[in-house]
Automatic annotation (TrEMBL):
Name listed for the protein in its UniProt record: Cytochrome P450
GO function terms (MF aspect): heme binding; iron ion binding; monooxygenase activity; oxidoreductase activity, acting on paired donors, with incorporation or reduction of molecular oxygen
Compositionally biased intervals (Basic and acidic residues): 284-299
Renumbered residue ranges of the record's region Disordered: 276-303
Keywords carried by this UniProt record: Heme, Iron, Metal-binding, Monooxygenase, Oxidoreductase
Cell membrane as UniProt keyword: no
Family: Belongs to the cytochrome P450 family.
PANTHER family in UniProt: CYTOCHROME P450 YJIB-RELATED, P450, PUTATIVE (EUROFUNG)-RELATED
Organism the protein comes from: Streptomyces rubellomurinus (strain ATCC 31215)
Keyword DNA-binding annotated: no
Length: 441
């Protein structure tokens, strides 16, 4: 058996695409290693990834993992591990089908579009708090807060509970081995998050008892209702709340950063997109109006949508899928994979496959068609994709039009090459994004 390819380290996290290219050229399946010695089989290439995401042999339930996988991959300490890990990402039909049905109405495209003006208000409020001139850290000042504020509105998280949420709790998805010096802090985060989830459940149960409550606009209340009716176990309820609070915001935060970083590395395309959003030509003075709505006069609403799709393809925040397993030894694209070994699909590698996307490493904001896999595919396609797209469109348009002259920070140690990429196994993004701009419009 070949030595596993390491998928970790600063160089890899900064730019994994050359490695993905070499792996695609060598074949569709590779044995890889993650931090803490976790091994998996990685699927690369668009055709293979698409097939794997739709392969009924590949189950998501952790019970399918073999003893060796469970020994290495339980990144959450027991007994908490099972208590927050039985959400949608780790379920198979029919349980997956019934659990997914509970969340679809809240994230339906029609409802998301009805909330877009509110998303714009939330984005503008955050930009209003940035310095008027000079520059700012777009993670601390915008990306770390905007997706959570949107999410709180969409799922029915009360303002006082939203104010208590500690973004540091999201780090529980980053592996910390049992012997790691950071393990005590990791476990403290997990306990804090579990206490918070219990408080959310208690509050929503009280809300449901109030006169006039309806499930239509209150996803959290609907989940508590499903638990009380016997549709969800308490572990499933807590896991779904956990998934909403962490997976429902962190990928969007990270995607905002990867999109802005990509545009800062392509200033000509940034300027072209901004001019399009303002309904102007490159020669028009860039005096951005307050209204950055994509339906304003002179603006092609498809321009922003196409740009966001291409930025998702070019550098997706959800780099790798979560684990999948074969129930028995079987062939996977010419490689025999043992039962219970973890199989992971590289969405980023698939989205840069030249066989599917001509000139795949080139950023083309007008690329069409653009059938990328940034939100997955098949029955585990991201149920919040419509919400994420709306958030990203509003965020990008707001930052580009309200921060004229947006550019990388000129300060020493804060350039694009010095950015610190988060060490999460599955995700891409930066933890700081210092930028400069002429003024806050």
């Amino acid at each position: 058996m070949p030595d596993p390819v390491p998928l970790y380290g600063p160089a890899y996290k900064r730019d994994p695409y050359p490695l993905y290219r070499r792996m695609r050229e060598a074949g569709p399946v590779h044995r890889v290693e993650f931090p803490s010695g976790i091994h998996a089989w990685l699927v690369t290439g668009y055709q293979a990834a698409h097939a794997a995401l739709n392969d009924p042999r590949l189950g998501k339930n952790h019970a399918l993992g073999n003893a060796n996988w469970r020994r290495l991959a339980s990144i959450m300490p027991e007994p908490q591990h099972s208590a927050l890990q039985v959400h949608l990402l780790h379920q198979d039909p029919p349980k997956h089908t019934s659990m997914r049905r509970l969340v679809l109405d809240a994230f339906a495209p029609r409802r998301v579009e009805s909330l877009r003006p509110r998303f714009q208000q939330l984005a503008d409020a955050l930009v209003d708090e940035l310095p008027e001139t000079g520059g700012a850290d777009l993670v601390a000042g915008f990306a770390a807060h905007y997706p959570f504020r949107v999410l709180a509105e969409v799922i029915g998280l009360p303002a006082e509970l939203a104010a208590r949420f500690d973004r540091d709790w999201g780090k529980v998805v980053q592996p910390v081995g049992p012997q790691d010096p950071g393990r005590p802090a990791y476990e403290a985060r997990l306990r804090g998050l579990q206490t918070y989830i219990a408080d959310v459940v208690d509050r929503k149960r009280a809300d449901r008892a109030a006169p006039g409550w309806t499930a239509t606009e209150d996803l959290l209340g609907r989940l508590v209702e499903a638990h009380d009716a016997g549709e969800l176990s308490r572990a499933e309820l807590d896991s779904m709340v956990f998934q909403l609070l962490v997976a429902g915001q962190e990928p969007v935060t990270n995607q905002i950063t990867t999109m802005v970083v990509t545009l800062l590395r392509h200033p000509d395309q940034l300027a072209r997109l901004r001019d399009s959003l303002l309904g102007s030509s490159p020669d028009t003075p860039r005096d951005s109006p307050r209204d950055s709505s994509p339906d304003r006069p002179g603006h092609d609403p498809g321009t922003l949508a196409r740009a966001v799709e291409e930025l998702l393809r070019h550098d997706a925040a959800f780099e790798l899928t979560t684990w999948r397993f074969l129930a028995e030894d079987d062939d996977l694209f010419g490689t025999t994979v043992p039962a219970g070994d973890s199989v992971i699909v590289s969405l980023c590698a698939a989205n840069r496959d030249e066989a599917r996307f001509p000139d795949a490493d080139r950023l083309d904001l007008d690329r069409t068609p653009n059938a990328h896999l940034a939100f997955g595919h098949g029955i585990h396609y991201c149920p919040g994709a419509a919400l994420a797209r709306a958030e990203l469109q509003v965020a990008l348009a707001t930052l580009l039009t309200r921060l004229p002259g947006l550019r990388p920070s000129p300060e020493p140690g804060e350039g694009l090459d010095e950015l610190g990429w988060i060490p999460a196994v599955l995700a891409r993004g930066v933890d700081r994004l210092p930028v400069a701009y002429d003024r806050r419009a």
